[in-house]
Structure prediction request, 875 residues.
Amino acid sequence: MRPRPDTEVQQHDAIERLHHTFEVHRRDFFKLLGAGLLVGTASIHVSTQESGAGRRSRPEMPENLDSWLHIGENGQVTVFTGKVEVGQNVRTSLAQQVAEELRVPLASVQMVMGDTELTPYDMGTFGSRTTPQMGMQLRKAAASARATLVKMAAEKWQVPESDLLAQDGRVREAKSGRAISYAELTQGQRLTKTIFEQPPVTGPEHWKIAGQPMSKINGRDFVTGAHKYTSDISLDGMLHGRVVRPSAFHAKLASCDTAQAGKIPGVTAVRDGDFLGVVAPDKITAERALAATRVQWDAPPQPSERELFSYLKTHTSEPEESERDQHVAGSVEQARPQAAKALRQTYTVAYIAHTPLEPRAAAAEWKDGKLTVWTGTQRPFAVRDELMSAFHIPRDSVRVIVPDTGSAYGGKHTGEVAVEAARLAKAAAKPVKLVWTREEEFTWAYFRPAGVIDISSGVKADGALLFWEYDNYNSGPAAIRTPYEVPNQRIAFHPSDTPLRQGSYRSLAAAANHFARESHMDELAHELKLDPLEFRLRNLKDERLRAVFQGAADKFGWGKRAGSPGRGLGIAGGFEKGGYVATCAEVAVNHEEVKVVRVVEAFDCGAVVNPQGLKNQISGAVVQGLGGALFEAIHFENGRILNPHLAEYRVPRFSDVPEIEVVLIDRKDQPSMGAGETPLTGIAPAVANAMFSAVGIRLRSLPLVPQGLPTRAA
Amino acid sequence: MAFTLLVNGVEHKVEVASEASLLNVLRDDLGLTGAKYGCGEGQCGACTVLVDGSPVRSCRMQIGAAAGKKITTIEGLAADSSLHPVQQAFLELEAFQCGYCTPGMVMSAAALLRRIPQPRREQIITHMNGNVCRCGAYLRIIEAVQHAASSGKRTTHAAAS
Ligand code: FES
Ligand code: FES
Prediction:
């Protein structure tokens, strides 16, 4: 399986993407940084072709890359990456890797992230790609820089390079003990070097700074409230914007009267096609202007929640002939009659909302025909392109800057708030900040796709899987394949016409596909009267997956004690995006109340870069996954969201959180992979399986218990 | 309308609409952006500040109700340059991911420790349950509050002895 991480982004995001050329305009910035050593390729133009051609084109990260890091006269190392920080702590883990390769203290590394004018083009921060791709890219750049510095010292001292060692920001000669700092070496020089073909990258087994637990490098700014998120930005003369939202999805503006709003002092009302918004000196006045706007919308009738799953199954488009969406091995039809036991079940997942605590926000400023937008997005360059096409302006005239953001979880791939803020700022001829309300965030962002998954399976009497037939409607193809050995398989993803706007969500469809598959595996195990872990291991060859199952089971004490009435144990696991996950859950059911009391999750994503950050990511993913597993669901009717508030959309809180133990399997012999997503995928099926073991009720729909425990099987 | 606010020991006179929330005035008029907007509904706690020592959802408090009272925001919690024990504990235990909930969490926790210096785990959970951390750092937040409580104990003991 070749990874195609962008597939679902292209599939789900409604935004058209454009072909474009990235050009670097950083001269001014380097003047500020001062002279020094610049590592990069000779070429300053990098052409990329992004996903415009549709799902089958594979966008590549540009191979021929421009400048990634700069060593200043003062020894300060500045690193440039188009990745963004949304709480996954890559600002820290990437800095660790650069510090490691350059042999400098972590404190001397400064990261410039997600700024379309300063950082090299980047497709976006998603798909758990920052660690495997950007991490390696920066390691190569930093290792090349280190080798270059050693060479410079060798030339200066007229000694062989092999006598020299880079250490602690200096090049040192072992024999004489003399040393020269990087700053002294690069002083007064402005060099352009290329990244080596084979840079002397340090193996994880020799890591001293990478591989170590490290706290967020700018953590102090977060506990003091000093950090400025997009929503905290204040620009000179800045006004506040609000957008008049349609009465329902797909509504068209029938008529509007902004005369009253326009009369309020300081208010500008903007109408442009179906876009309607107001700008005011403060939020209260903007609110009043919004209320004073008289609008009528024409909304078409639309499918509602009650018909959702039948709608998804009857409104499919033909599956694409791609290896990821379609998989056939052996013959399910021929195997079917030979099964000792067969099982057919349907699983469903609801639409859920990312609910980042910082809602979408943007601050936009037009100055001398140039547009600068600060916004919390996972794809600064894609948002830049959205702005370009929205305002018909050249690329050079748009700059997107992403301050470290109040999280995203796959929910901030698009730039609608940036476009809206820029439109309002243009009309007002002043900088404008627009922060979506929580209700807007719940309504006008996109959702994790809802889906239906049908599984038909058969096993032999000895517990060996014989056939596996799997149809996923709309939820997505991520992790759709089974990691178990099955000779006869037919697996298909069927995209549907979705009633609600949908897009990426942390782990994509891997959460839904793991839920369906691992629930079904549990059902089969119970049919066969086999221990669920034993049944899985019997059908599993993949050593790394076996190892995480074993790791989680050992720590959890799986098999050492049985569940008891009202107390259930469940296990689930899988593989996606280079990460292997196994999750054990213990659930307590008391009357209708369901409480997950203990979770053990084992995870292997290769060589661990920052064990502390990784553990935090894993337990955070378990908590977030618990919401979708137990109670999160978007309710909707005829183009309207019925529960667009935190009071009605329940997210996990302190009282919902179980004891969580993380088992890290640090594979120094394996490449480091991302960990933002896959750790979320084991929890829902582990909990569903534990619920069955507790009360004998098999729940096949996510969320499992939105209203507490149902009185009969779903 | 004109209001006088006492924020972090400093008096401010502001001229705002009477329906303005304390949160908006702090953020937009006084430039104190530590308290966050997360929901505007009193449901997430991101906007928590102390009013006369008690935790308050500043998004739900009209400015008139805050006038004349002692308001403490995250910016005013630390004495001089050293962090408040709760901030210190959050930093040491890295009780956050994206950090957006952190100011509200820290203020809620500081209020709790003021009222109950040595809270039991269940008391922490009950008291903090109105604060949402969407990144799911809850367990480390609980640990940080416990850590701050025990470091507070040490400080008190040290001061007493
Ligand atoms: S912003 Fe005040 S409680 Fe959410
Ligand atoms: S750290 Fe992101 S919301 Fe708490």
